[in-house]
Specification:
Length: 119
């Protein structure tokens, strides 16, 4: 990845997604809305790092409102899943609502790496 140069649009770009976290008991529901692209990696990684701080509960990642995602999302979801498994916890992925996001999992062959659930 090419680092952003000071004063460029890439450095000043705000994330094109929103993360909402609902905590309830031993489960955290994470809703991703909008678009996740390569330039959002740092912001999304920071959000996911906060999620897994301490003892990680079961995490459900809701992709129903996500309109677009590239391999950045896949990479971070795989990392999150490895983290959860290393701590004996589960991660579920809510079925994507948009065909383009579903296609990302199908085309890359990563659908079998995750446990999908209807939300």
């Amino acid at each position: 990845m090419i680092p952003a140069q000071p004063g460029t649009d890439r450095e000043q770009r705000k994330p094109s997604f929103e993360v909402r976290v609902n905590e309830g008991g031993a489960r955290r529901l994470v809703r991703l809305d909008g678009r996740v692209e390569w330039h959002d990696e740092q912001a999304l990684r920071a959000g996911l790092d906060r999620l897994t701080a301490g003892t990680p509960p079961e995490i459900v990642v809701d992709l129903r409102r996500l309109e677009f995602a590239d391999s950045t999302l896949l990479h971070l979801l795989l990392e999150l899943q490895r983290h959860q498994q290393a701590h004996g916890m589960r991660m579920l992925v809510g079925e994507p609502g948009h065909a383009i996001v579903r296609r990302l999992f199908d085309v890359t062959g990563t659908r079998t790496y995750f446990t999908f659930t209807a939300l």
